[in-house]
C-alpha cells in the first residue's frame, strides 16, 4: 500500500471541481463541489442512523438503489434538512447536474451540509452547476475538498495505491467534519473514489466493514448528525479481475479502504470543533469486540475526560468512570490504563486502582497534539480503537454563539 | 403540602452537624457532616449504576441490608473510590461514628464525595467525628448541607409538611451536585429524612419511584458518577398509622417525596458545573413514558443544545437532532417544539419542520435563568420531564484545569 497524491481524483477516470456559487455570503469560501467519473460506477453508501435526516439522504438512497452512480454534487452552507420542500430541491440539484454532464439524474449522489431548517436557495446552485461541469479536472480535487468544508479548519483528503490481480488500483477520499456545525448542525461526509473493478455488493460490504471501524468510531461531541453519509464510487478502470466474492483480492481492497477511512476519521476527530488535540483510545483484551468498541467510544465521548485532555490532566478516574458506565457485562478490577504520546508513556491505573506516577511527566505527555489512551481489560480478545478530541473553550464559543 | 424550614432536621427526632475536620486544606470549607435520629429508622437507598463505584456504596449497601439505619456520616474532598483500602476506611468511618453516638456501626449510612483514586486520610475524620457528635442540633442542618458541598455554589435543602392519617408528617432533604466534580469527579448525593411511620419495603418503593422521575432525570454532563446515592431514613415519630401497603396514605407520602426530590433535582441541575441557567425539558404525548424519558434526557444531555442555551440561541435544529438520535420507535414528522421562560413562549418547530419566528423575542426568552423546552409528539400519552443546564466556558474551565 502506497500513499499517493491527488485525493478523490487520484483513481483513473475521476475529475472534480469546486467553486463559490453564492449559498454562503463569504465569497472567499467555496460552497459547491462536483465529482465525476468518465464511465458509470458501481456505488455504495452508508448513512446517518438519526431518525431526523436530510432530504439529500432520501434522494441519494433512491438514486443508488440500482447500485450505480456517475457523479456527486455537494453544497455547503445549508443542510437542506427539516425543510418542507427539501426532497424537491435535492432532486432539482440532481437534474441540473445530470443535464450539465449529459447523464441520468438517477446516477447522481447528492449531499448538503450546513444550517438545518432553512429553505435551500436553489438559485446559486442553478447558476453554479453549469460553471462547474466545464472546469472538471484532475487538479480539481483540491477545490472540491475546500467546497465541502464548513467549520473544518483543514481540508481532509488522501489517496493510496495497491496491487490487485497484477494491476495498480487507486483509491481516493475526501471528508469533512467536524462536529455538528455552526450555526445549526451539520455533518460528517466522506466521499471515496476508486478505479477498482468490484461488484456493488462487495463494494457495499467493504464500505460497511470499513466505516464500522473508522468513521463510526469517531465522536466530536456525541451528537449524531442528521446528514452523515459516506459514499464510494468504483469505475473499474484499473482493469483488475473483478472482485465479486471474498478472498485475497477483496481482503487487499478492504485493507486499503479501512486505511483511508482511518486516516479520514483521525483527521475529522483531530479537527473537531474547537479541538486542540486528537485523542485516540484503544481498548485491548475486552470480553468481545462489541464491548471494546462501546468502551473506547464511551471514553472519547466523556465530557469530563475531554475537558481533562484539554487541561493536560492525567485524570484517570474520569476514564475509569466512563468505562464503568458503559453498558455490558465486564469486570473493572483487572483494568489498567496507560497514557502516551510522542513524549513517552505512563501507567496511571492498574487492577482498577490508581498507581503512583510522575505528574510532571504525565503533563508533558498530555501537552502533545496527539494523545493515546490504552485500556487493557485482560478479559478476552476484543480490540477496538475510537477517535475523539478535547473539549475546549472554543467548542463552547463555536456552538454557543448566536446565529448570525 | 406545605413548605417549611429546617431541611433534614425538620422532621421530629433528627439532628445534624457539620464541621471542617481537615480533609480539605481550605479551613473555611466544612468537609464532614453528621445526621442522626434519636430512634432507629427504617431506611432505604438507591445507588449509582456505574460498575466502578465507591467503597462507601459497598459499605452502606451492607449496613442497610436489614432495612435499618440511625445515622449518616459524609465527608467531602475525597470520594474514597478506586482505593485498595477503601472499604476498610469506610468501615472505620462507621465504627468511629457508632462509637461517638453509642449505636451499632451497622446502623450507619456512609458517603464520600470528592477526588477519586486518592487514599483517604482517616486522621482528620477520626478527630472530627468525636467533635461532631456533641454538637448535633436542630440548627445543624445548615452546617451539614455546607459540609457535603463540593463544586456546588449553593446549598441545596428543603422541607415539607403533610397530613397523613390525621398526623402532621414532615420530610426534609439535603443534596449536592453538581456534575462529576473537580479535580477528579464526584457525586450526586441526596439525603432524605422523615418522621413518617412507614415500613422499609414501602419506603424503598416510594424512594425508587420518586428518584426515577427526579434525580434520575437530571444530567449535567452525561457522565454517571461512581458515588451517586440517595438515601431516606424514616423514624416513625410522627405517629401516623404505619404505611405498610399502597393506598391513600402511601400516595400522599409518595407525592411529597416526589416533590422534595423534584426540588433537589432542579437545584442540582441549575447549579451544574459552570451553569448559567436551568433547562427543563418536558416531552408530551410520546408513544410511552419510557420514550418520553429517553427523549427528554437526550435533549438536555446534547452538548450542542446545551451550548445553544448558553448562547441564548433558539437553535431548534439541535433539539430535533437530539430527538432523532434517541433509540426507539417513533415518528418525527408530528413533532412540535416550544421554548418558554418567564419572558414568554415561542413555537419554533411544527410537524418536524421549522416555522417562522421572531428571533429577537426568542433571544429575550432564552436570556432568562430558567428555560423550558416543550416537545409535543402527538403520538400517545407518554409524558416526562428532565432537567439540565447550559454548557459554558466555566464548565470547561472547572473540568479542564490541572489538579492542584
Automatic annotation (TrEMBL), chains A, B:
Protein localization: Cytoplasm
Residues in coiled coil: none
Domain of life according to the entry: Bacteria
GO molecular function, one term: L-glutamate N-acetyltransferase activity, acting on acetyl-L-ornithine as donor
Cellular-component GO terms for this entry: cytoplasm
Enzymatic class: transferase
Reactions catalysed: L-glutamate + acetyl-CoA = N-acetyl-L-glutamate + CoA + H(+); N(2)-acetyl-L-ornithine + L-glutamate = N-acetyl-L-glutamate + L-ornithine
SUPFAM superfamilies: DmpA/ArgJ-like
Positions of the record's site feature: Involved in the stabilization of negative charge on the oxyanion by the formation of the oxyanion hole: 113-114
Binding positions (substrate): 150, 176, 187, 273, 399, 404
Gene Ontology biological process: L-arginine biosynthetic process; ornithine biosynthetic process
Entries under Pfam families matching the protein: ArgJ
Keyword list, A-Z: Acyltransferase, Amino-acid biosynthesis, Arginine biosynthesis, Autocatalytic cleavage, Cytoplasm, Multifunctional enzyme, Transferase
Active site: 187
Annotated positions for site Cleavage: 186-187
Pathway involvement of the protein, from the record: Amino-acid biosynthesis; L-arginine biosynthesis; L-ornithine and N-acetyl-L-glutamate from L-glutamate and N(2)-acetyl-L-ornithine (cyclic): step 1/1; Amino-acid biosynthesis; L-arginine biosynthesis; N(2)-acetyl-L-ornithine from L-glutamate: step 1/4
EC number(s) reported in the record: 2.3.1.35, 2.3.1.1
Protein family according to the UniProt entry: Belongs to the ArgJ family.
PANTHER family: ARGININE BIOSYNTHESIS BIFUNCTIONAL PROTEIN ARGJ (PTHR23100), ARGININE BIOSYNTHESIS BIFUNCTIONAL PROTEIN ARGJ, MITOCHONDRIAL (PTHR23100:SF0)
Function, as annotated: Catalyzes two activities which are involved in the cyclic version of arginine biosynthesis: the synthesis of N-acetylglutamate from glutamate and acetyl-CoA as the acetyl donor, and of ornithine by transacetylation between N(2)-acetylornithine and glutamate.
Oligomeric form and interacting partners: Heterotetramer of two alpha and two beta chains.
Name recorded for this polypeptide: Arginine biosynthesis bifunctional protein ArgJ
Species assigned in the record: Anaerotignum lactatifermentans
Lineage: Bacteria, Bacillati, Bacillota, Clostridia, Lachnospirales
Amino acid at each position: 500500500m502506497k500513499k499517493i497524491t491527488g485525493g478523490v481524483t487520484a483513481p483513473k477516470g475521476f475529475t472534480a471541481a469546486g467553486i463559490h456559487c453564492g449559498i454562503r455570503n463569504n465569497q472567499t469560501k467555496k460552497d459547491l463541489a462536483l465529482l465525476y467519473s468518465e464511465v458509470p460506477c458501481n456505488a455504495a453508501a452508508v448513512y446517518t442512523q438519526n431518525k431526523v435526516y436530510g432530504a439529500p439522504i432520501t434522494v441519494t438512497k433512491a438514486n443508488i438503489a440500482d447500485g450505480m452512480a456517475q457523479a456527486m454534487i455537494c453544497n455547503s452552507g445549508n443542510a437542506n434538512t427539516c425543510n418542507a420542500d427539501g426532497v424537491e430541491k435535492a432532486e432539482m440539484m440532481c437534474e441540473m447536474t445530470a443535464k450539465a454532464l449529459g447523464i441520468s439524474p438517477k446516477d447522481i449522489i447528492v449531499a448538503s451540509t450546513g444550517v438545518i431548517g432553512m429553505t435551500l436557495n436553489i438559485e446559486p446552485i442553478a447558476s453554479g452547476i453549469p460553471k462547474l461541469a466545464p472546469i472538471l479536472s484532475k487538479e480539481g480535487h483540491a477545490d472540491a475538498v475546500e467546497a465541502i468544508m464548513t467549520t473544518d479548519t483543514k481540508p481532509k483528503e488522501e489517496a493510496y495505491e495497491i496491487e490487485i490481480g497484477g494491476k495498480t488500483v487507486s483509491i481516493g477520499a475526501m471528508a469533512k467534519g467536524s462536529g455538528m456545525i455552526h450555526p445549526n448542525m451539520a455533518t460528517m461526509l466522506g466521499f471515496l473514489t476508486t478505479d477498482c473493478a468490484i461488484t456493488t455488493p462487495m463494494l457495499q460490504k467493504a464500505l460497511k466493514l470499513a466505516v464500522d471501524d473508522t468513521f463510526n468510531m469517531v465522536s466530536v461531541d456525541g451528537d449524531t448528525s442528521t446528514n452523515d453519509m459516506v459514499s464510494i464510487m468504483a469505475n473499474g478502470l484499473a482493469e483488475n479481475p473483478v472482485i465479486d466474492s471474498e478472498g485475497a483480492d477483496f481482503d487487499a481492497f478492504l485493507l486499503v479502504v479501512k486505511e483511508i477511512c482511518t486516516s479520514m476519521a483521525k483527521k475529522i476527530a483531530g479537527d473537531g470543533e474547537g479541538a486542540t488535540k486528537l485523542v485516540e483510545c484503544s481498548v485491548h483484551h475486552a470480553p468481545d469486540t462489541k464491548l471494546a468498541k462501546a468502551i473506547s467510544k464511551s471514553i472519547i465521548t466523556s465530557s469530563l475526560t475531554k475537558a481533562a485532555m484539554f487541561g493536560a490532566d492525567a485524570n484517570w478516574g474520569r476514564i475509569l468512570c466512563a468505562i464503568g458506565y458503559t453498558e455490558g457485562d465486564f469486570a473493572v478490577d483487572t483494568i489498567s490504563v496507560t497514557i502516551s504520546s510522542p513524549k513517552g508513556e505512563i501507567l496511571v491505573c492498574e487492577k482498577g486502582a490508581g498507581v503512583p506516577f510522575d505528574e510532571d511527566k504525565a503533563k508533558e505527555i498530555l501537552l502533545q497534539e496527539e494523545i493515546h489512551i490504552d485500556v487493557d481489560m485482560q478479559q478476552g480478545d476484543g480490540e477496538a480503537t475510537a477517535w475523539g478530541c478535547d473539549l475546549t473553550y472554543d467548542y463552547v464559543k463555536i456552538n454557543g454563539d448566536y446565529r448570525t
